[in-house]
Amino acid sequence: MNQEILTPAADTPKTGLSRNTLKYIAILAMVIDHTAHAFVPEGTALYIIMRFIGRITGPVMFFAAAEGCRHTKNINRYMARLALFALLSYFPFVIFISGGAPGSLSFARLNVIYTIFLGVAAIRIRRELQRPAVKTLLIIGLFILSIPGDWGATGLIMMLVFDYFHGNFRHQAFVYCLVVLLNIGILQAAGNLLYALATGMPVSADSYVYTIIGLGMFLPIILLRFYSGEKGRGGRFSKWFFYIFYPLHLLLLSVLKAVL
Questions:
Q1: SS3 call for 213
Q2: Of all residues in the chain, what percent carry a pLDDT higher than 70?
Q3: d(Cα 169, Cα 8) in Å, to the nearest integer?
Q4: Which is nearest to 84 in space by CA: 237, 195, 240?
Q5: Is 61 within 8 Å of 20 (Cβ atoms)?
Q6: Could you give the 3-state DSSP secondary structure of residue 9?
């Protein structure tokens, strides 16, 4: 069945959160997450809570980008804009994730706008190419290219899921939750816990910190359930705000950490 001909599902509210509102919520969650990464001691309760909230950002932005593919007037300019700001965000992201230490710069790490760019490319390939073998090979190539990106292949999979099941929120939510469960390794974490309990081995809470944080990826589904299907207010300001805010806030946090 061609998912692209589906009309909006009956269980999707006609009023609710616009794409711009979702983006602003995602931006707030991103600031909370990155503030924890920069300033809060790892493993503390505050760190876990802030980064748990931060798991909202990626999936909501991937959803908004998948929707943007359908609503943009010019997909080529949309991709060019993503490519430009992925490039402009390169050094701010590298500096931020290194903690500002010159000797620890990781130039192989790439930002989330890069991942979104690849996701948009994957969506275009899925929609526009007719030969399944060529389509599959090209998308696999994009998965490989996504490895150094923030959210990596998980981000591409989420974008493809949101696009493929467009108009059917229940299917989007179900497959998205499967992706999240695989991403956070919930079965492995549960197995390790049961093994520790069965053998009497001590259970280290530290080993489950990132599994707990990863559970925050279920939060976006609550928000997306109330997506109105509308772009929302904001005009050109909203269109450019995230692109500009992303590298600027990374630089600001890096400077503050270096000063403090």
A1: helix
A2: 86
A3: 8
A4: 240
A5: no
A6: coil
Task: Take residue 239 and report the two structure tokens written for it.
Answer: 């269109």
**DSSP string for 10-53:** TTS-SSSB-HHHHHHHHHHHHHHHHHHHHHSPTTSHHHHHHHHH
Q: Judge contact between 105 and 94, C-beta under 8 A.
A: yes
User: Which pair of structure tokens corresponds to residue 195?
Assistant: 């093994």
Angle, nearest 10°, between helix axes 90-97 and 19-39? Answer: 40
DSSP code of residue 214: H
Question: What pLDDT is attached to residue 184?
Answer: 86
HSE on the CB side for 126, CA within 13 Å?
Answer: 23
d(CA 175, CA 183) in angstroms, rounded, equals: 12
> Which pTM was predicted?
0.88
Q: Are 224 and 172 in contact (CB under 8 A)?
A: yes
CA 52 to the chain's CA centroid:
13
Cβ contacts of 123-132, under 8 Å, gap ≥ 24 = 123/66, 123/69, 123/159, 123/160, 123/163, 124/69, 124/75, 124/79, 126/160, 126/163, 126/164, 127/4, 127/163
Per-residue pLDDT for 7 more than 90? no
pLDDT tens string 24-82? 999 999 999 999 999 999 989 999 999 999 999 999 999 999 999 999 999 999 999 99
Give φ, ψ of 148 to 5 degrees: -80, -5
Of the pLDDT bands very low, low, confident and very high (cuts 50, 70, 90), residue 236 is: confident
Tokens coding 196: 């520790």
- Residue 151's pLDDT is 96
Residue 134, pLDDT score: 96
